[in-house]
Amino acid sequence: MQRVVITGMGVIAPNGNGVENFVKNSLAGKIGIKPITKFDASETGISVAGEIDNYDKNDYVGKREARRLDLYSQYAIQVASEAMEMAGIDDKNTNPEDLGVIFGSGIGGLTTIQDQVIRMHDKGPKRVSPFFIPMAIANMAAGNISIRFNAKNISTSIVTACASGTNSIGEAYRRIREGDAQVMITGGAEATINETAIAGFAALTALSTSTDSNHASLPFDQDRNGFVMGEGAGALVIESLEHAQARGAKVLGEIVGYGATSDAYHITSPDPEGTEAARSMSKAIMQARITPDQVGYVNAHGTATHANDAGESKAINQVFGKDCSVLVSSTKGMTGHLLGAAGAIEAVITVASLEKGVLPPNVGCFNQDPECQINLVNQDNQKQNIEYAISNSFGFGGHNAVLAFKKWSEK
């Protein structure tokens, strides 16, 4: 089995574009949630979301190509490009047959679907764009990344709702660990701040109805009332340690474990006992060949819905004990919930936190729910020299995915 290291990262998130800005702002507790501007949301009953600021398609995608790409694919190309630049991967140091892509999305091109259905209804089927299908389908982030970087190993997509990004990274990790690839571009992208998505999740009573951007996403708070929709993307370039060392790459961190299970319980609600969520954490920790007491930090799924936060807290207690010292935070209090991209940006902040020795605070918890008996990160305890951390993602349909990371050392 090959060791799998991280050599490049890319992010576009509501609280910061680019890895440097995103990490700096997340460690400082900066909230990227704001009033919805992409459409008139007044009839949906939802007021705020984690919209991307200052996105320029010309930075990485290009004006001409952008016309043929849904926004989620544009975000994916941007973060993959940033990660590849950071990693220094090119055709001189990497064989295209050894370079693959596993990149997920929870929904794919929903804005394109919405717009083209309206066009068909208003103007007739002959007016539907010839690019409708290749813009809308959920595999096109991976496909376009593969084309752009001439990646000829596996190119595939994983759709496991809000676990998509984490499952994608986990499966890419497996690919390298087992020797089927040397380098993988992996992560997730989502662009669902539109009327259809907001209305749909609002109909499920899943979204926060708060009008205050600073008091909308409240992970583990007793007054939490739903998640805040976010958008963006995250990417990792991961490779075998042997390949990275052969080309003199800077290593940012190491993936040492991956656990995936299914609740087999309900289409939208997590198992309230958190049994399978706990088992996915245990599987990641066991694959890392460590014990729970060696894990210093859990980047929680922490959506700020009542069911998720209570169930996840129980799962953490099952793995680490009710009086455990492990520190926990959800970064969704700053970014909102990026659905299929959530696990990808959360992997980035987890790796960066291990590298810097500073954990992201759990923004948005003003009065911790007694049901959530976990130790939350705050400004007083966020400076920690931790060797191992895990990152949790749980999706509609009962999908549970957990990654275990190690602070880089050659040992």
From TrEMBL:
Family designation: Belongs to the thiolase-like superfamily. Beta-ketoacyl-ACP synthases family.
Pathway the protein contributes to: Lipid metabolism; fatty acid biosynthesis
Enzyme Commission code(s) on record: 2.3.1.179
UniProt xrefs under NCBIfam families: fabF (TIGR03150), PRK07314.1 (NF005589)
Gene Ontology cellular-component annotations: cytosol
Stated name of the protein: 3-oxoacyl-[acyl-carrier-protein] synthase 2
Entry keyword Flavoprotein: no
Organism: Lactobacillus amylovorus
Active site: 162 (for beta-ketoacyl synthase activity)
GO MF term set: 3-oxoacyl-[acyl-carrier-protein] synthase activity
GO BP, sorted A to Z: fatty acid elongation
